[in-house]
Design a protein that fits this description.
Blueprint lengths: L11 E6 L5 E5 L4 H4 E2 L2 E2 L10 E7 L4 E10 L2 E6 L5 E5 L4 E5 L10 E5 L11 E7 L5 E6 L3 E5 L5 E6 L5 E6 L5 E6 L4 E6 L14
Antiparallel strand pairs: 1-2, 2-5, 3-4, 5-6, 7-8, 8-9, 9-10, 11-12, 12-13, 13-14, 15-16, 16-17
Length: 208
């Protein structure tokens, strides 16, 4: 499945399933050859015409049902919250967006929070994969920030879980034991953090 016509997928990034069994996917909004040179971003990558998108897909029919949002600056992580709203982030702005995908035919983009910490580091940093805990908090890996940033139910900063490696890219709760496992590309490792809660149960795909 590659999308169709002008809406062909450019850089599919992350996905999750909803309580309705449908697939929700982020597309960062530009073909890799247009913003990556070797292992690095091209000069001026922040100023390119990014068209990051969020899709709703029927996995059984292999068909896009809705384009929920577009023109996001590098859409990345995605997850459903305990309120059954869809959450997706923008790596270049640090913002987490919330969408009422079940209450609105054309869900509006609502800024839920921001995970970037102010500092003088000139290197790129931004949110990547994320997951919700049963405590209702959002746990978001932040690439080049060396932490998992935690937002409470109101989208306010609750904590920053410091990591060993600088470049976390995704996270997931273990099935048992109240631990969060974090993939980290800088040192090529998986880190494990003791947590105060379990992960919010994930939804499964519906194929029938």
């Amino acid at each position: 499945m590659q999308g169709e016509g002008a809406d062909r997928f450019l850089f599919p990034n992350d996905l999750c399933f909803g309580p309705n069994g449908l697939l929700y996917m982020t597309d960062s909004g530009m073909a890799a050859e247009d913003f990556i040179n070797g292992q690095a971003f091209v000069d001026g990558y922040m100023d390119l015409d990014w068209d990051g998108r969020v899709y709703e897909i029927d996995p059984a029919a292999m068909k896009v049902l809705r384009e929920i949002d577009r023109k996001i600056r590098f859409t990345n992580g995605i997850a459903f919250g305990p309120d059954d709203h869809l959450y997706a982030n923008a790596s270049f702005t640090g913002e987490i967006y919330r969408y009422d995908v079940f209450g609105e035919a054309a869900p509006k983009r609502v800024v839920f929070g921001n995970v970037l910490q102010p500092d003088v580091n000139p290197d790129f940093k931004g949110p990547d994969g994320m997951a919700f805990g049963t405590d209702g908090r959002l746990y978001c890996t932040v690439y080049n920030q060396k932490n998992v940033t935690v937002l409470d139910r109101r989208g306010k900063l609750a904590d920053r879980l410091i990591l060993d490696g600088p470049q976390p890219t995704n996270c997931a709760f273990t099935m048992e034991g109240k631990k969060l496992r974090v993939t980290e590309v800088g040192k090529g490792q998986v880190e494990e953090i003791d947590m105060p809660c379990d992960g919010l149960p994930l939804h499964l795909p519906k194929f029938a």
